Amino acid sequence: MSGITSRFAPSPTGALHLGHAYSAIRAHDLARAAGGRFLLRIEDIDPGRTREAHITAIIEDLAWLGLGWDGEVVRQSARLGLYAAALDRLKAMDLVYPCFCTRAEIAASAAAPHGDEAPVYPGTCRHLDAATRAGRMAAEPHAWRIAMDAAVARAGPLAWRDDIAGAVVAVPEKQGDVVLARKDAPVSYHLAVVVDDAAQGISDVVRGQDLFAATHVHRLLQALLDLPTPLYHHHALLVGPDGRRLAKRDGAPALALLRHDGQDGRELADGLRRGQFPAGIFDQKA
Ligand code: GLU
């Protein structure tokens, strides 16, 4: 067996569509071609949006596509202690702070410049004094945010390797003080993904280009938590006729629908491997 371990890590908050299938196939094939391991991790950290029915469908979709994984299916909801321990380490380094702001307050902040993803947090709660912070923590729900400037200063210059983009200098500052633990969920995507990729020995992270910006933050967290950095493969996304990436909300057909329609999943997967996409669907580069 080679040293390659890859994973598919869907969030069970909706149905998988062709874009997910494409990503899963690429991650699976990378490992299988090298005689390595391919893991399935269910990123069910959002209790409000996770549905058991989506988890069942994900498992059936992958089997239908002919993609087998190694070992047990890992669910992030069963690993909350690991994420809490990582957050505690960052607290001990004084690199995180509680944030009491609502989404509406952040959105209303006219000064907030926009990063690659969500609006960049204007830093309101970073400057609270210790007494105010302690009082509000006892009384109000709060998230935990990274103190980005302090974290970057502590980590020093960082880079990572992307099989497609080449050597990338990490610029996490652009994302601002991102959330590491949410008010309504004990951990955010950024922290959970970094902890799990390391804990599961993931050597190669294969995922869509839409998560490229997040990797700047992931690289920083790896440095702060002394975790290894995998090789990344941020692949082009599948897009619809309007050039926008496939999304369920824009009518991208769910794999489950194609499956129930009697389509052959293995044939579909082989088509995607050869770059033959169903009508109206393109690879972003094309
Ligand atoms: N759970 C994330 C998603 O479904 C993907 C995580 C990753 O591949 O890093 O968008």
From TrEMBL:
- Please report the stretch or stretches of sequence annotated as the Glutamyl/glutaminyl-tRNA synthetase class Ib catalytic domain: 4-273
Annotated GO molecular function terms are: ATP binding; glutamate-tRNA ligase activity
Read off the InterPro entries from this record. aa-tRNA-synth_I_CS, Glu/Gln-tRNA-synth, Glu/Gln-tRNA-synth_Ib_cat-dom, GluQ/Sye, Rossmann-like_a/b/a_fold
* A Pfam family reported for this protein in Swiss-Prot or TrEMBL: tRNA-synt_1c
Write the record's keywords in alphabetical order, separated by commas. Aminoacyl-tRNA synthetase, ATP-binding, Ligase, Metal-binding, Nucleotide-binding, Protein biosynthesis, Zinc
Read off the SUPFAM superfamilies from this record. Answer: Nucleotidylyl transferase
List the NCBIfam families.
PRK05710.1-4
Instruction: Tell me what this protein is called.
Output: Glutamyl-Q tRNA(Asp) synthetase
Organism field: Edaphosphingomonas laterariae
According to the entry, what is the taxonomic lineage of the organism? Bacteria, Pseudomonadati, Pseudomonadota, Alphaproteobacteria, Sphingomonadales
